[in-house]
Amino acid sequence: xxxMSDDKKPTLGRRPLGLKTSVEAGEVKQTFSHGRTNKVVxxxxxxxxxxxxxxxAAAPAPEVAKPAAPAPAAPVARPTPPPPPPVSPTASRxxxxxxxxxxxxxxxxxxxxxxxxxxxREHEERQRAQEEERRRAEENRAQEAAKSGEPEAAPxxxxxxxAxxxxAAAPAPxxxxxxxxxxxAAAPxxxxxxEAATETKAAAPVTPxxxxxxxxxxxxxxxxxxxxxxPPARDRKxxxxxxxGKLTVTxxxxxxxxxxxRSLAALKRAREKERRAHFAGQSQPxxxxxxxxxxxxxxxxxxxxxxxxxxxxxxVKALFKMGMMVTxxxxxxxxxxxxxxxxxxxxxQRVSESDVDIDTAADVDAEDTLQPRPPVVTIMGHVDxxxxxxxxxxxxxxxxxxxAGGITQHIGAYQIxxxxxxHITFLDTxxxxxxxxxxxxxxxxxxxxxxxxxGDDGLMPQTIEAINHTKAAGVPMIVAIxxxxxxxxxxxxxxxxxxxxxxxxxxxxxxxxxxxxxxxxGAGLDDLIEKxxxxxxxxxxxxxxxxxxxxxxxxxxxxxxxxxxxxVLVNRGTLKVGDILVVGTQSGRVRAMxxxxxxxxxxxxxxxxxxxxxxxxxxxxxxxLTVVENEARAREVAAYRQEQATAKRTATAPTSLENxxxxxxxxxxxxxxxxxxxxxxxxxxxxxxxxxxxISTDEIKVRILQSGVxxxxxxxxxxxxxxxxxxxGFNVRPNAKARELVERNKVRMKYFDVIYQxxxxxxxxxxGELGPERIETVVGRAEVKEVFPAGKKDKAAGLLxxxxxxxxxxxxxxxxxxxxxxxxxxxxxxxxxxxxxxVRAGLExxxxxxxxxxxxxxxxxxxxxxxxxxxxx
Length: 873
Description:
TIF_IF2_dom3; six-stranded mixed beta sheet; Rossmann fold; nucleotide-binding; extended; alpha+beta; disordered N terminus; six-stranded antiparallel beta barrel; 6 domains; Arc Repressor Mutant, subunit A; GTP-binding
């Protein structure tokens, strides 16, 4: 801001206050950020003070003396006026009041004068700071010109000479400021004295005389220089430090500059850089490392770059040159990945997705690592032949009492300890026809099969099926003929019947052991155990306990408190708490293990059945449990198996257009009976689904919308409501929220605990869905001889009955040239003008057909009866 613009503005330092005008106007320039400015017109109004009647003559006295009176030397403290003359004791009361008022006014004027002087001095200091800033800038420019050798020194040197006339013509404060600058540069010690003299000279001509009125406080102008923060003090000893506040990389790393100390990390980085540069100058360029890159069937560009230890951008460039516009997250096939690996000079190793899965067949234990293990014995036979009772007698417990309907519907796994200290693992399988896969699974994981045959009943269908499963599994068999305590017991008949199925017992000079037992009296149990141990000794059962465990899932379920549970039989290795495992499409970690008596165990050696907690979901019965090295491997295998299962479930066989339309037509003709099934264990779900699929016919079939293990949930209820399907619960009940939804939406629920009751109920419901069966029986035929009107609309037909009889109200079909014209009912039957109930063959009659007038001579009328019967599946 220049001094010219300062002169135009109405400041206290330039124009002393007076009584000439009551309003002064001026422009104030406002400066904002980013170089924006604004001019504002300011008006200063002064308040006029009305004096009292006694003061009118004394008020103008200071103004008359103002031009000639010199200002006092001190700018702040104005001269104290002479004390008033003493007031006589006889002065009037008005004189004392006037004296008091005058003293108060003079004190107020002195205070305002001091305030004015302070404001003026502040303004002068601000101007002096601006002049100092301008002078320093000129000195810096002169030093830059002197360093660079440019001819700019002369104009800068002439600046003090040119400033002298300006200083002489300028007002006193500016001249004093200009005179102070060289004095400060020449003699710093004389600065306080010079500043005091300057202040005295500057304040002398502008200090106003005392006034008899109270002025209004002046309006302060916004000063741009005052708003901006003052720059930090610079070192005047030399050097260009105009940008001293900025920190650059060069300055931060320059050790010669003491303004900023280097950190320890910066020193370490610098020394490491020097060491690398030193060794890089001595060593030869490093050869490129050739890597063996494992490439699956599909891989992303980024993953391939990581395996090759190359930049992903280089791979993208190479693919662009091949004509493939890809990104680093895009998947490429194995052939394209091979081209990239070869181009970058690496070796490729192809792997298929099937290599991700665990192949347990190739993992064979060495002979010297095998140790003896207990035998696994499966009890199989027909339903209600005493399998579970025999196992109870061996274990000394009573499992039968806790079973619904007195039949086994789950696979039970138990281990007993004999009197000699040997261990035997028993598996109890269901005997009902619906549990075929359970029996097959039990035969596949076992070492010895005990075929239970009731001595009073003989061989039954499930007994024969168990024999076939045993032969298919290739395991030895021991025949246990039970119920020896009954009078109808006939073991010889059982032995003879077994010959029909190529099972020759030792009593018939064969190699199959047999024993007569009674679970009720305990007879023959010791012989049975002895024969089991003898057979196990012949088999030489061994396993390696010192390796990662491998087990087979016998049964799986979802427990409300424990979560997914799997009953597994350890085949080899030792299963420990904390092992990471993969079982089917699920993965997890062994949190806890329970034996057949519910006790927690830490380790499970071979042939021990345990219940495992900690699996991510309910596995399928029959899946193999494998312990892996880490969780990443477990998740990888589980994800691969899940993809394979999904692809298998959603895969459809390729078909032609004709086959597709025929399949749609067949589907439209078949009635579907939807169901939502929930059971307690995985084996029960499997058995129920198989049993329901068997009762389906060509007219109606079961459609399983959803089946699962565990309690009935909200999603099951919502699905059943949307599709109008009933929910079948086998040994399970809905949870609280699902129960509320069932009551609100009126969804049908069916609860069962015996499987054959479930199948019978669903069979009868499916039959009812089809409706009763209609059976038509033709009872008579007649020929239309004549047609004549009967009433306003109807037509009557004259008939000749050819076969059987015609009865009123019976169903009839009118055919013309063997094509059915209409299907109707005989509404009226007459012979000669009389209504008759029936007309026999060989006679003529007249009929009126209901809702039919399309009758012509020569048409044939066929009458028939309809019988409805209850449909069965």
